[in-house]
Amino acid sequence: MSAFPSRLSLMGFPLDAPSLPQTLDLLSDWMFGPRRGHTVVTLNPEFIVQARSQPDFARALAQADLVTADGIGIVWAARQLLGQDVPRAPGVDIARGLLQRHGPELRVYFLGGQPGVAERAAQEAFHDFGTQVAGHHHGYFGPEEDSRVIEAIAATRPHLLLTGMGAARQELFNERCKAAADVPVLLGCGGTLDVLAGTAQLAPAWTRRAGLEFAWRIASDRRRWGRAPRLAEFVRLVLREKSRQGR
């Protein structure tokens, strides 16, 4: 982490500021270096809103080895509250970047999504990048089954675990897996498995350049409409904190 600026604190939560290339370099070192677990959080506004009322989630964020800015909302908040411009390193770009960079030398376990999604994502990664598929498992299981799934993951000895089970659930699982399994990098990546599997569309390039992909996803997918209030709550919290700081 010495190559990056010091860890920031955004609304009481950690935020590192590596660019996407720096993130890929660091995770590559971790994946192929000494086998020690590192958790990676791709922070978005929803995480901060949820973690404010979920102590276990907040603890998992604080304990993460790397926290990148996933959404444009985090970039905006850092500019408003810290006066700093932080680069984005979204989960989908991190995952695809690692798959593309390392190809057949990379061994990956795919975890999350509805039944069939992780399997399809693994198949597509093998087809597109030659990725070694350590294993796959859907995300429809409860915490009482975590130990069984962690044992299955540990037995495959992957370099990388892609965990797409939604905010909080994936971060809490990865923290537990980090302590119990020999996985160098554990990346919470939300809907990335759906993108890899082709069951969800990647936002158009122009929305990603403009930082509007979250709005595009809400508008194009009714299942996401229920998440919009959290974004509004995040904006309210940032503006309230900015007013308190006198900025």
TrEMBL record:
InterPro entries: WecG_TagA_CpsF (IPR004629). Pfam families: Glyco_tran_WecG. Keywords: Glycosyltransferase, Transferase. PANTHER family: PTHR34136, UDP-N-ACETYL-D-MANNOSAMINURONIC ACID TRANSFERASE. This is WecB/TagA/CpsF family glycosyltransferase. It comes from Deinococcus lacus.
